[in-house]
Amino acid sequence: MKIPMSILLMVALASADPEIRISGSNRDYQPEDWITFCSTRFVRNVSVGREYVYYCTSGGLCRYNFYSNQWDFPYTVSNGLADNDVYIAALDVNTGYLWVVTQQAISYLDPASRYWTNTYLDELGLFSERITAIGFSADRKVYAATSGQKILVSDGFSSFFSSAYPPGNLDEVIWYGERARNSSEIPA
User: Fold this and answer.
1) CA–CA gap between residue 178 and residue 132 (Å, rounded)
2) What is the mean pLDDT of residues 87-92?
3) pLDDT tens digits, residue range 25-65?
4) What does the alpha-carbon distance between residue 56 and residue 75 come to, in Å, rounded to a whole number?
5) How far apart are CA 159 and CA 124, in angstroms?
6) Has residue 93 got a pLDDT over 50?
7) Hey, is 39 helix, strand or coil?
8) 77 falls in which pLDDT band (50, 70, 90)?
9) DSSP H/E element including 132
10) What are phi and psi of 56, to 5 degrees?
């Protein structure tokens, strides 16, 4: 008896455990082997990178390539994100890492390997708080601001954050999310 692929997919999705944590991209597959398209009806944030405009949605991170004037596949759990509910996306121009804040985690995409790495908010000690902004400094540090007014800092090459006391001069940090300066400079 031959079972249709759509039924197998529905059974697999229905039996998926929502408590299973995705540590990052599955290295048994190439980054574009699995592509998932979800409902991207709710856009939460928009940011501009070197070649893409990033749309943070309830169905993943949508990417519009402004050089080729076309949509590229979205980044979702199929690519290694912790979940599809994306709040902030920011490209660190110093390192080339793409950082994403989801409902459950902070993640980054390594430009060389094209694999995602996730760190869950509770692993950072954020049990009732969420990350509201992410920023980058000229000395290649990554900052995360929380809803509880905490500032966390990372070395820029990993998602191991620690409290920043004292936080330093945050005026020189380029922020994305709630701390971002409003800008209308979107490429034509």
Assistant:
1) 6
2) 94
3) 555 556 566 566 666 678 888 888 889 999 999 999 999 99
4) 10
5) 9
6) yes
7) coil
8) confident
9) strand 131-136
10) -85, 120
pLDDT of residue 19: 64
Residue with tokens 């790495």: 117
Q: Amino acid identity, residue 68?
A: S
Where does the chain have alpha helices with state H?
5-14
Comparing CA positions, the residue from 62, 81, 178 lying closest to residue 120 is 81
| Backbone torsions φ then ψ of 143, nearest 5 degrees | -115, 145
**How many whole angstroms separate alpha carbon 181 and alpha carbon 152?**
19
- Provide mean pLDDT across the span 8-28: 50
Q: What six digits make up the tokens of 14?
A: 């229905």
Taking the C-alpha atoms of residue 28 and residue 174, their distance in angstroms, rounded to an integer, is 35
pLDDT of 5 over the 90 cut? no
Cα–Cα–Cα angle for 146, 100, 182, rounded to 5 degrees: 70
Tokens of 21: 């944590």
For residue 178, give every residue at least 6 positions away whose Cβ sits within 8 Å of its Cβ, in sequence order, or none: 132, 133, 145
Read off the tokens for 48: 């501009």
Distances from the Cα of 47 to the Cαs of 25, 44, 67, 121, 136, in angstroms?
A: 23, 10, 16, 22, 14
- The encoded tokens of residue 47 equal 């940011």
